[in-house]
Amino acid sequence: MGMYLLFQPEEDAESALVERAQGHPSLVIASGDARLTVQIAGREGGAQLAIRFARELAESAAQFADRCEALTKLAPLDFEHLSALVGATPDEVNALTVPAGDDVKEVER
Questions:
Q1: What is the pTM of this model?
Q2: What is the helix (H) or strand (E) element at residue 27, kind and residue range?
């Protein structure tokens, strides 16, 4: 069964490692009344799956933060403009959000 969650952080958003019972850690992500908890699956190999997922999540979260930062570096996000770009390639969006000097490559002489 598939499930789709959309989480848009509010001012009170937070994430934390919680271990209410020793040896049973949980990653808790919260914002307002919404909570998402990630735990080790109670089966063989569950810990390894959780480790791999948590490391991948951390890497993706860092990439997400970097991308959000790049989008807001020049000016606040203009959601109407961004929605008009639906279907644009990442390179096309980058061209609109990354200063030209960042993409300049030094020419060998």
A1: 0.66
A2: strand 24-31
